[in-house]
């Protein structure tokens, strides 16, 4: 873990550590006030149960709490975007696979701050292992959760399928903090969270 966190910092990412999901939720609520916030679909964020605390002091766009035709677009264009990651490699690279592209788009478009909330289970070894984790752990679990008709939902292994329900159509890797985003933060929680 220490090597990964050091490499994240070397790559221009801010790293914050919390011992528990509760502590992470309190951190987010205390540091984000008066902002527009977009939230990506994430079992990690659901585990934090942070939506109500954020919505009490911010305008929050999250399709899981308030579905609507413009929720995804507003979330992607918010001042702050909160998501998780499917994996973080020991080189300090952040990986996310997405089906539609809205969740990864939000991490690319937020102007002031992007926050990736990750449990310790998302920290992988080298890049090849991080990609394997994203494709063979996170994607099949999400396909099952979303009742997708994909081979990975059945057997938990990526088949690089051509199913119309395929949820791994886009891969975004952050090697470094991109231009135009003031802060890209990785909030690491010392618990297993999400897929």
Could you name the key traits of this structure?
195 residues, alpha/beta, Rossmann fold, 3-stranded antiparallel β-sheet
pLDDT average, as an integer? 94
Q: What is the CATH C level class, in words?
A: Alpha Beta
Say what the CATH topology is.
Answer: Rossmann fold
For the biggest sheet, the summary is: 6 strands, parallel
Number of DSSP E strands: 9
Report, as a whole number of angstroms, the end-to-end distance.
18 Å
Q: How many discrete domains?
A: 1
Strand content is: 15-25%
Q: What structural class do you assign from the helix and strand content?
A: alpha/beta
Shape category: globular
Task: Give the strand line-up of the largest sheet.
Answer: 1-9-7-4-2-3
Fraction in helix: 25-40%
Poorly predicted runs of 5 or more residues: none
Order of helices and strands: HEHEHHEHEEEHEHHEE
* CATH homologous superfamily annotation: NagB/RpiA/CoA transferase-like
How many separate helices? 8
Instruction: Provide the CATH architecture.
Output: 3-Layer(aba) Sandwich
Please state the CA-atom Rg, rounded to the nearest Å. 16 Å
